[in-house]
Amino acid sequence: MSRRAPRSRNTTKVTRLLTCFLAASALVIGTVVPATAASAATSVAPTVARTAADPAQTGLAKTTLVGFTPGNIISDAVFTNKSTMTEAQIQTFFNSKVSRCLGGRDENNEPIVCLKDFRMNTVTRPGDQYCSGYSGAANESAARIIYRVAQACNINPQVLIVMLQKEQGLVTHTWPSAWRYRIALGQGCPDTAPCDPNYIGFFHQIYGAARQMQIYMEGKWFQWYAPGRTWNILYNPNSSCGSSPVYVANKATSALYYYTPYQPNAAALRAGYGKGDGCSAYGNRNFYNYFTDWFGSTQKPVVDPLGDIRRLHTSLGGATGVLGAAKTTPACTATTARCTVTYVNGIITWTKALGARQVYGEVYKEYTAQGGLGGKLGYPKTTPTAVTDPNGNGTAQQFDAGWVHSSVAGTFASSNTIMTAYSKAGWLRGKLGWPAGVETCSATSCVQAFQGGSIGYQKGKAAVPLVGVEADAIDVVFAAQGGSSGALGAPVGQLTVVSDPQGNGLVRQFANGWIHASAAGAFVTSNASMKEYSASGWLRGSWDGPRVRSPR
Q1: Phi, psi for residue 308 in degrees, rounded to 5
Q2: What φ, ψ does residue 125 adopt, rounded to 5°?
Q3: Phi-psi group of 166: left, alpha or beta (phi > 0 → left; psi -120 to 50 → alpha; rest → beta)
Q4: Is 368 helix (H, G, I), strand (E, B) or coil?
Q5: What pairs with residue 415 in β-bridges?
C-alpha cells in the first residue's frame, strides 16, 4: 500500500464547512457508489482511500450474489441476535482487518485513528421501549461501544459492524479522517439535508442507529416499507432510473429500506462489489455482500460447522494468529453433533447450540492437562475473556464443569463447586484474588489455593471461602511438627472443611492431637486440650477457635 503524498499548508487549513460538505457527500456516495470506489470519491488521496475498502485488501472477492433477495435481505432472527459476538471477538475482528494503521493527521489536522484503536468518552442515555439505556464511561473502545449498544438495543453487533463498513469503510480503512467517525453510520444525515447535530459523534451514531432500527421495526411511525406488502422500490435516487415491485418479507428488511431506500439493479448485482451502471445503487447490496462474506448467512443460520470454525479461525488471525495452523481436518456435516479442529496452539470446537468456541494458549494447556474435551472440565461454554483487574490481569474461560483462570499467579482449573463459592466471594474482585494452586481432593474434601486464601468443601456440600487461610496450612504445620514420626503422630482422619459463624477454616485429626487452620492462623491442639475444647462446644462454643498452640 502506498502512502499519501505530502499536503501543502493550504490543504491542512480546509475549513469545517468543506469537511461537512465532504461528509454529506460521502453519505450520498455510499449509497450510489460501489464499495471499491466509495472512499476514493470523497478523499484528497484517491489511491490510498480506494485500497482502504478494496475487497482485494480485505480478502473479499465476491463475484456473484446468488441468494440475495431484495424482499428478504436479512431475517428478523439474525438481525436481532445480540449474542453473535462478545466484546473481545469484536475487537479481534477489527484487529484482523487492519494490520497497520497509517496514522498522521487528516485534512483538518486532526489525528488519524483506525477503528481498532479508536476510543472515546461516552455519555449516559436513558432507557425507553426501544433500548434499555447506556451508562456513559471514559475511554471506551469502538468494540466496547458496539457490544454494549447491541446488548441495550437488541441488535446483532454484526449488523452495526457491516453498516460501519458500507457507510464509511471504517472497518478496513487504514487512515480514516475524523469526520468519518462523526457521521459513522449516516444516522440523522439524510441525503437531502444537513446532518442533525444531535447525532454527530461515533457514540451517538451507533446508539442512535441501533435505536432507530428498533423504531423502524416497531412499525408505528414508519409504514412505507411495512412488511407483508409489496412496494415499488427505486433503483437509484434518480427516479428516472425506475423501480420494481418488491414483496418485503420481514421487519429487518423493512428497516434496511427505511435506512437506504434503494434496491440494487441487475447491473449492480452482476458487479459483485464493483460498479454497475449509471442507475445502480449499492447500499443494500453492499450490506449483503459484507455480511455474508464476514459472518455467513443473513437468513436462519445455515448449519455449517466447518464454515463457522473457519470464519472464527480467520477472525483470530488465521495460521499466523493465536491458534496457529490447523493440524486436523475432520469431515463434519450439518448433522454432526460436535465438530472439532485442532490447531498448533489450541482447538476450535463447534456445536449447533453454542456455535464455534476456541480454546488456546495457557488455558488450552491446562484444559489439555485436565483431559480436554473428554476430561473433567467438559466442553467450552464461552470464549476466552481477557480480564483487567486490580489484582492483576489475566484470562478466564468457562467450561461445562468448571473454569480455567490464567494470570501471573499461574493457570489453574476450578470445579463448578469451587466457582460457586468464588463468585459469591466477589470472584477476582473479592479478597481471594486469582486462583494460585490446583484443586486437590482427599476422599472426603477438596481445597484450592487462591492469592488471598483458599476455597474448600466437603464432598456433597457447598464450598466455602477461606479468606486468609492457606490451602496447605495444616500440611506446613504438620511437617514442622516432624510429620508422622513427630509429636502429633500419623493422621487418623481426613482433612475437614468447616463452615462456622465464627469463621471458616480447615481441621485435621492426628494420633496425638489436632491442627486447626483459620484466618487467625494454624495451631496444634493436644488431645487433652481437645477434650475440654469439645466439651465447651468446639468451634461453636464460647472458646471460639484456637489462637495459640496448646502445650504438649
Answers
A1: -65, -40
A2: -120, 130
A3: alpha
A4: helix
A5: 402
Q: Which of 205, 194, 199 is nearest to 16 (CA)?
A: 194
Beta bridge partners of 343: 326, 346
CA dist 313 and 307 (Å) reads 10
What confidence tens digit (pLDDT) does each residue in 75-120 have? 998 999 998 899 999 999 999 999 899 989 988 899 999 999 999 9
**529 Cα distance to chain centroid:** 57
Cell numbers at residue 477, please? 504445620
Q: How far apart are alpha carbons 180 and 22 in whole angstroms?
A: 10
What is the rounded distance in angstroms from the CA atom of residue 124 to the CA atom of residue 203? 10
Place of cell 468494540: 143
CB distance 339 to 309 below 8 Å: yes
Pairing of strands 453-458, 464-467: antiparallel
The predicted-structure confidence for 306-359, as pLDDT tens digits, reads as follows 988 998 998 898 999 999 999 998 988 888 889 999 999 999 999 988 889 999
- Scanning the structure block, which residue is given the C-alpha cell 495452523? 325
Q: Give the number of other Cβ atoms within 10 Å of residue 486's Cβ.
A: 14
3-state secondary structure of 348: strand
Q: How far apart are CA 65 and CA 274, in angstroms?
A: 12
**Rounded CA separation 185/25 (Å):** 13
CB 120 within 8 A of CB 144: no
Mean pLDDT of 527-534: 86
C-alpha cell belonging to residue 541? 462454643
In this prediction, residue 540 has a pLDDT band, given cuts at 50, 70 and 90, of low
Calculate mean pLDDT across residues 52-57: 36
In contact, 160 and 149? CB cutoff 8 Å: yes
Residue 410 phi/psi, 5-degree rounding, is 120, 180
Element containing residue 423 per DSSP (H, E)? helix 416-424
Asked whether residue 301 carries a pLDDT value surpassing 80, the answer given is: no
Q: Extract the runs of DSSP E, i.e. beta strands, from 378-528.
A: 385-387, 394-399, 402-407, 410-415, 435-441, 445-450, 453-458, 464-467, 496-498, 505-510, 513-518, 521-526
Strands 453-458 and 445-450: antiparallel
For residue 61, give the DSSP letter.
Answer: -
Report the distance separating Cα 94 and Cα 85, nearest Å.
12
Rg (CA), the chain: 30
Q: Rounded distance, CA 151 to CA 90, Å?
A: 13
Report the pLDDT averaged over residues 133-159: 96
Query: How far apart (Å, rounded) are the C-alpha atoms in residues 32 and 38?
Result: 8
Q: What is the pLDDT of residues 211-248, one digit of tens each?
A: 999 999 988 887 889 999 999 999 999 999 999 999 99
Identify the pLDDT of residue 219.
83
Residue 429 has a CB neighbour count (10 Å cut-off) of 12
What's the DSSP call for residue 195? P
